[in-house]
Design brief:
Rna Polymerase Sigma Factor, Chain: A, mainly alpha
Length: 148
């Protein structure tokens, strides 16, 4: 499992974090994968999206820590053009589009606004955060239904 997962985890973390933090996040993610491997249910879907989800969560955590410390990345993270990464990314995007297709239009609009793809609606911040939370809950349910 290590031989299959490690290159993909490192590739993802290098795209999302500065070089000095990417490998730490990848190591932490792989440790969590091994710690929680007994919880993985192969009947609910493929392992790679589950593993990359854990790695993505570690990157998110590392970015939050950077923001709390008000540290900015010193250099842009290079984009690695690996054919395997492109295939994995295409599979994940297709799975996301499938899950998003199961949502109500207002949920899709809320998630797009939260991602910065469209302008955020002119509503109070707490209301918007609650809409994002509910939309994410529905997206997770749709993801689990389709992809385990």
């Amino acid at each position: 499992m290590y031989d299959q997962a490690w290159p993909r985890i490192v590739s993802l973390t290098r795209r999302l974090l500065p070089d000095d933090r990417a490998e730490d996040a990848a190591q932490t993610a792989l440790l969590k994968v091994f710690e929680h491997a007994s919880e993985y249910d192969p009947d609910k879907g493929r392992a790679l999206p589950w593993i990359l989800g854990i790695a993505g969560w570690e990157c998110r955590t590392a970015r939050k820590q950077l923001a709390r410390r008000q540290e900015e990345p010193q250099v842009e993270t290079p984009v690695v053009d690996d054919p395997t990464d492109r295939i994995v990314q295409a599979e994940l995007l297709a799975a996301l589009e499938d899950a998003m297709g199961q949502l109500r239009p207002d949920d899709v609009e809320t998630l797009r606004a939260a991602a910065g793809l469209i302008e955020r609606p002119d509503i109070p911040g707490a209301t918007f955060r609650k809409r994002v939370q509910r939309s994410m809950d529905r997206l997770r349910a749709a993801w689990r239904k389709s992809h385990g």
